[in-house]
Amino acid sequence: MQIIRRRHFTKAALRVRRRGAATFEYVLVVGASLPMVAMSYYYSMKIIRAVYEMTCALVSWPFM
User: Fold this and answer.
1) What does the domain layout of the chain look like in residue ranges?
2) Is pLDDT of 10 > 80?
């Protein structure tokens, strides 16, 4: 029967491995959130204008 030994990492080795994972997560978050923020900033005025027009139409409809 073979004994399976677990690898024990020092704190420095774990920190280096985690730093790489944290950098990868940071890149993924920035890569996903930045385009969404840019898109919402671009479309925000169009959405606000459309909501304003619909509100005006609903308020003025009984008086037409």
Assistant:
1) 13-63
2) no
